[in-house]
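TL;DR need structure tokens for one chain.
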Amino acid sequence: MRRQYVATISLLLACSDGGTKGELDASTLPAGDGGGTAAPLDGASRMTDARIRPPRDATSSGDGAACNHAELSFDPRPPTTVLLVDRSSSMFDNKLWEPLKAGVLSVVQQLSSDVRFGFASYTGKNGGMCPDMTQVAVAEDNYAAIAAAYNALPAPPYKGETPTASAVAAIASALVAQEGDAKSIVLVTDGEPDFCDDGNVTCARDAVVAAVQAAYRQDVRTFILSIGGQVAGAHLRDVANAGVGQGVVDHNNNVKNQCTAKATYGTSEGSAPYFEPDVANQAALIEVLAGVVARTRSCSLDLAGRVRVDLDQAERGTVSIDDVSIPYGGANGFRMNTATELELLGTACERIRTTRAVRIAVDYPCEAITYL
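>> reply
TL;DR here they are.
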């Protein structure tokens, strides 16, 4: 059964005028998640169920000055994440494959109840299959299938190339066809991309950025990790920015001067992070991988089947993240997509994706909500 994995969250349903907001009921918080650690890798505390307290004051004066008060947990839709791992010859020649595999499988094992994982590896042969891919379909609790496929993969029996663009396109296409929310690719590579021909690296980089941008337009985000220190930082920045819809620039007109550009370039560059973990440090590698997976979190939050918000009064609600209020509507606030689904937007969304422990509080007047 999937566990709630985001930060400690409480929904406060109270009157806006004079209603007293209560504090989080510590009795609803588990001592741990059963996994043998005080906190899961994504740094989040887990709430195991939604408990509604009895009303503090069931008497209403009719003007909203007093009303029922409840606290309950709600959880996001589980993210759908494919781990896309470069299987080129250099991964084996430089002894990166095994330590990376150990780190990836550790993260999948610990988070597979919270994330709908899929897995794919890719390489290719000059004059042959390009890309040459092994895939495990996305599913809940998918550790066993991913571990079996990953452990069975040998070094390629030929000079394994790095056709990253075509691999990203294939996985994005598969994800678009999947049910699920917060679809993402976590790409791990140790080398510059190519077309299985050791050709012009600038054009191959352009093709990767184009594939990542196309994935983003279909609501599939991409996060990139580079291991081994062989991938140019400029290219990593481009992929990271393209992966979350931020601006990409043509550095020194390299693409314009050498290729027919496939990607879209602008005049300003985004600031999305990329990651370069050291595979020799397993603890650090696992922390980075888990942190990247945490970025795939959904910003759509279900109200746990316990309450319904009157959408005609949705603007009367207030939301705070770690006691900082965010507005209804607007680029960095929140909205109600349905009567039971709240979505955080812009910087509010990014905060819950990138901050280890947050508390989200939602406050609505009594007349704006109905208990189910």
